[in-house]
Design goal:
The protein is α/β, with parallel strands linked by helices. Helix content is about 35%, strand content about 20%. It is built from 14 helices and 14 strands. The strands form two sheets. The protein has an eight-stranded parallel β-sheet. A six-stranded mixed β-sheet has the order 3-2-1-4-13-14, with no helix packed on it. The chain binds N-(iminomethyl)-L-glutamic acid and fe (iii) ion. Fe (iii) ion (FE) binds next to loops.
Length: about 400
């Protein structure tokens, strides 16, 4: 086994607060920053972290020449397996047409019509794109199949590129069930879920809970679906409170969800429920950028003690970006998160929703992202500039 020394790190963000001296407090302390640092990795794991003047021997060496290194971004919410194009829908939205989830049917038709190899090629290109921007870990949902065979196909393709796979058979009610929603809920909670579990095709179940959309699911439907998934051994994630105030966030907290995502329209009871729960609020500000909805109120959540994550929601409808640096820049500019809060939410916060540590520490996976910049501040300071790329994963 060969070891590699990574040196020349002007600023190493570990997300391990043990590295922060007593003079550092608050949001920056959580980043556990080591100045003039080095890291040793071996067999995909971190074996040493510390100051560059005390490095152990290693077989090879990478000098990052005064750049910053941060934990690889964790994109904990994506819909990457799809075919087709909805750029026309985006253009119409910029001209004033509201998003209501109806366009999902367009992607379902295109995806059902694509071969495995076509979808595999599209997915591989998207994974390469997000790695080039510093994402080390990605969660992928199904949800553009909406039949037993097509949902299983999308989950299998997702599983080829990540272990973090979510069953989203309850994305919308497909056209063929529009006249009988209850029958579709029975399909999802019955034979579709049974097939997913039998094939161990997903670790999570998710529902688009949005009573304001005629296509998505009501509170009662969502509860039925999530309970069935939970009883079958899947952990819960929820799309909630995206298009308006609604029951999704409180339902997610009630179910002990790992994450409730969007959280765009929250009332006091939603914030209190999140603060009292172990459920992470995952904010997806690329969606508000691409739909012209108002941005979620991250400050209110952070001040209430809620755990916050950031992710892209990369999908062809509401947000077709794969860029975590773009999301971090939006979080700082528009959600009023500090640069430290935004980076933490895009790494440790999103990692928490997947049961991962999201930090650079001895024994952990060596998911390191290098910035072509001397500090993490540049992620938001230089929006749109391709600074970040994965170094070791
Ligand atoms: O997270 N809201 C539901 N699902 C996606 C959008 C999917 C689509 O429009 O294709 C989202 O925003
Ligand atoms: Fe989504």
């Amino acid at each position: 086994m060969t070891s590699t020394l990574i040196t020349g790190i002007a600023e190493l963000v570990t997300n391990d607060p043990a590295w922060s001296g007593s003079g550092v407090s608050g949001d920056v302390a959580r980043l556990g920053i080591v100045a003039d640092a080095a890291v040793v990795i071996e067999a995909g794991r971190v074996t040493w972290v510390g100051a560059a003047d005390a490095v152990p021997q290693a077989d090879s060496r990478i000098d990052v020449a005064g750049r910053a290194v941060v934990p690889g971004f964790v994109d904990s919410h994506t819909h990457l397996v799809f075919a087709g194009d909805r750029s026309g829908e985006f253009a119409a939205r910029m001209a004033g047409t509201a998003y209501d989830g109806g366009g999902i049917a367009t992607t379902v038709a295109a995806t059902r019509g694509a071969s495995d190899d076509e979808l595999r090629g599209l997915l591989a290109a998207r994974i390469a794109e997000l790695r080039r921007q510093g994402t080390a870990t990605v969660e992928i949902k199904s949800g553009y199949g909406l039949s037993i065979d097509d949902e299983l196909r999308l989950l299998r393709l997702a599983r080829e590129v990540t272990p973090h796979v979510t069953f989203l058979g309850a994305h919308v009610v497909p056209a063929e069930y529009a006249a009988d929603r209850a029958a579709y809920v029975e399909l999802v909670t019955g034979p579709m879920l049974a097939a997913v579990v039998a094939q161990r095709a997903a670790a999570y179940i998710d529902v688009f809970c949005e009573p304001r959309s005629a296509h998505a699911f009501t509170e009662d439907e969502a509860r039925t679906i999530l309970r069935a998934g939970q009883n079958a051994g899947l952990a819960v994630r929820v799309h909630g409170n995206q298009l308006g105030p609604g029951p999704g966030v409180r339902l997610a907290c009630e179910m002990g969800a790992a994450s409730v995502d969007h959280c765009t329209y929250l009332d006091e009871a939603d914030v209190a429920a999140l603060a009292d729960s172990g459920t992470v609020a995952t904010l997806l500000p690329g969606v508000e950028f691409s739909t012209r909805h108002p941005y979620p109120d991250a400050r209110r959540l952070l001040d209430a003690g809620v755990s916050v994550a950031l992710a892209t929601d990369c999908n062809p409808g509401t947000c077709f970006t794969s860029s975590m640096p773009f999301v971090i820049a939006l979080a700082v500019r528009e959600l009023r998160m500090t640069p430290a809060e935004a980076l933490y939410a895009a790494t440790a916060g999103s990692a928490q929703t997947l049961g991962l540590p999201g930090r650079i520490a001895v024994g952990e996976r060596a998911d390191l992202t290098v910035l072509d910049a001397p500090s993490h501040l540049h992620l938001a300071y230089r929006p749109g500039v391709p600074l970040a790329s994965t170094l070791t994963s």
